[in-house]
Design a protein that fits this description.
Elements (H helix, E strand, L loop, with lengths): L11 E4 L4 E4 L5 E3 L10 E2 L7 E2 L34 H12 L2 H19 L4 H17 L8 H15 L6 H8 L3 H14 L9 H12 L3 H14 L8 H15 L6 H8 L3 H11 L3 H4 L13
Antiparallel strand pairs: 1-2, 2-3, 4-5
């Protein structure tokens, strides 16, 4: 009972921030130095509400990543830590002292994977798959093998995208990372020799969905273009998946009577309009073999 208002049914409120117990009716501070006995939750998830008492095990580190970690302080617009001390330096030294050289190499690679994946706006499942592949690569590669970390990470992200069913082209990754397409291809070939075989080469039909989404085309056109691309590859040996996908989309839009400029489709596929025209011309003679039932071949069609 509150000694001031003496309300027999009065309620008290615990203010843990100040350590006070307060009467809800009259506001009298009945007690002070109240101890907060609740659990000290902290959110360790990348997003969403996922409170935990401790951080999660890192499945891709040999040690599991179980250790005390000094967090980096938030930085200002110029990279300064707003006068709050050297959290960044302490974090670096703590990582060097506490983690093995192998774990340090893995964490450095994981940081690069996260950075490139964010530039490419890739979902969390791609980041996780890329980290899994990178961990496997580090454990299986010949330690005398020299490689550029940025390039190997770019190749691993390409492989992760393909294996998770959201493929990106070499050209797209090269453009966003400023790593040459030739360099990414080189390390991708090396990865295929070291890591278990995945889903194989990216097919044209894998790319149709994303290109159609960029062009804001209907599901009907997307499904038609996918059917065309699945069959067209057999008649267009040596052509890149991007060019086959783009030519299939161009043919599908013409069959559906929807006008789309070659330059728009070329921009979505990151190839030149000339390439689309050439592949489209090679595609036309095979219409009877590649078109689904119910569609009539175009007559005297031009790109």
């Amino acid at each position: 009972m509150c000694p001031d208002c003496k309300n027999p049914n009065g309620e008290f409120m615990e203010d843990f921030a100040n350590g006070d117990m307060i009467c809800r009716d009259c506001g009298l501070v009945v007690g002070d130095r109240i101890v907060d006995v609740r659990s000290e939750w902290r959110n360790f998830a990348d997003s969403g509400d996922d409170p935990s008492r401790a951080s999660r095990v890192n499945d891709w580190l040999p040690s599991g990543g179980l250790a005390t970690e000094i967090a980096k302080l938030p930085t200002g617009p110029n990279g300064q830590n707003n006068g709050q001390g050297g959290g960044g330096k302490m974090s670096q030294w703590q990582r060097r002292i506490q983690l093995s050289q192998g774990d340090q190499n893995l964490l450095s690679g994981f940081d690069k994977i996260t950075h490139i994946a964010e530039i490419l706006v890739l979902p969390q499942k791609i980041k996780n798959k890329a980290k899994e592949l990178y961990s496997s690569f580090e454990s299986k590669r010949n330690k005398s093998m020299r490689c550029k970390k940025d390039s190997i990470v770019a190749a691993i992200i390409y492989m992760a995208c393909k294996e998770e069913g959201v493929p990106r082209t070499f050209k797209e990754i090269s453009k966003e990372t400023e790593i040459s397409e030739k360099e990414i291809r080189k390390y991708y070939r090396a990865l295929n020799k070291i890591l278990p075989k995945g889903t194989g080469r990216t097919s044209a039909s894998d790319l149709v969905n994303r290109f159609c989404s960029k062009l804001k085309l209907s599901n009907e056109i997307m499904n038609l273009a996918t059917d065309i691309a699945n069959k067209a590859a057999a008649f267009l040996e040596g052509k890149s998946p991007s060019s086959i996908a783009a030519a299939s989309i161009l043919l599908a839009t013409k069959l559906q009577g929807e006008k789309r400029w070659e330059k728009d489709i070329a921009a979505a596929a990151s190839i030149s309009p000339t390439t689309i025209r050439n592949v489209f011309k090679e595609l036309l003679p095979h219409q009877e073999s590649i078109l689904p039932e119910g569609y009539r071949p175009l007559q005297n069609a031009t790109a």
